[in-house]
Amino acid sequence: xxxxxxxxxxxxxxxxxxxxxxxxxxxxxxxxxxxxxxxxxxxxxxxxxxxxxxxxxxxxxxxxxxxxxxxxxxxxxxxxxxxxxxxxxxxxxxxxxxxxxxxxxxxxxxxxxxxxxxxxxxxxxxxxxxxxxxxxxxxxxxxxxxxxxxxxxxxxxxxxxxxxxxxxxxxxxxxxxxxxxxxxxxxxxxxxxxxxxxxxxxxxxxxxxxxxxxxx
Length: 216
Ligand SMILES: *[C@@H]1O[C@H](CO)[C@@H](O)[C@H](O)[C@H]1NC(C)=O
Ligand SMILES: *[C@@H]1O[C@H](CO)[C@@H](O)[C@H](O)[C@H]1NC(C)=O
Ligand SMILES: *[C@@H]1O[C@H](CO)[C@@H](O)[C@H](O)[C@H]1NC(C)=O
What we know:
Elements: H1 3-18, E1 28-30, E2 35-37, E3 50-60, E4 67-73, E5 76-79, E6 88-90, E7 104-106, E8 115-126, E9 131-145, H2 148-215
Parallel strand pairs: 1-9
Antiparallel strand pairs: 2-7, 3-4, 3-8, 4-5, 6-7, 8-9
């Protein structure tokens, strides 16, 4: 009976260890904030040991071609593009040569960082008597937005909320006054009508009475 949880635990541990999910990177960065450029390439054969080198390339909106941006090999990263000196950090797999997460982190995004990023994995699968090379490439189109967009949108929606609340209440008051006038006018009319009706009934019943008296 004790064996079942133990095997489950072991199974879970191996599953957790092998779990690699290729999530797409976010594509909208906020200026003057940090941003993680995600790049994940899972090994097809999780059980086969491998070593990988990750290279990043960048093509800004003004550039004609991709320029080398960053390289990560032997647990060491190097920024290759002067525009990104002191602004890039490795954010991928750590303490291993078998990289599956090749993400990098931009410390302080500027509008000039808008553009296309390409990330490549050069992976060597190390089988017992031969090596197999696989390359994978991911492309990310990054858009940089000012910090205020969200704030401005929420301010605008708040103003719209107040405008609509005040507008609705004003409309309600106008409607109430209109209805009140209409009801009171209708009330007077009804009063006059019922008075006339009362008199009519009264005179009718008088006639009836007269009729009855005549019949007698
Ligand atoms: C990011 O860069 C801007 C402009 O270059 C600067 O004003 C700001 O202080 C920097 N922020 C950080 C956190 O380094
Ligand atoms: C962005 O690029 C323009 C033109 O290349 C340059 O003049 C400007 O200083 C750059 N801005 C930043 C924050 O790097
Ligand atoms: C992977 O990329 C490297 C460097 O660009 C190249 O030398 C190698 O031939 C490529 N391998 C495959 C299998 O495409």
